Amino acid sequence: METPRRFAMVAGEASGDVLAGLLLAGMRSRWPTLTAFGVGGANMALEGFDAWLPSETLSVRGYIEVLPRIFDILSLRNKLKNRLLSTDRPDLFIGVDAPDFNFGLEAALKAEGVRTVHFVCPSFWAWRPKKVLKLRQSADHVLCLFPFEPALLAQHGIASTYVGHPLAQVIPLEPDRLAARLRLGLGTSDTVVAILPGSRQSEVQYIAQRFLKAAVLMQAQRPELRFVLPALPALRSRIDDLVQASGLRRVTVLDGRSHDALAACDVTLIASGTATLEAALFKRPMVIAYHMNRLSWHMMKSKQLQPWVGLPNILCGDFVVPELLQDAATPQALAQATLKWLDTPAAVTSLHTRFTELHNSLRRDTAKLATDAIEKVLQS
Question: Domain 177-362: which CATH class?
Answer without folding.
Answer: alpha beta
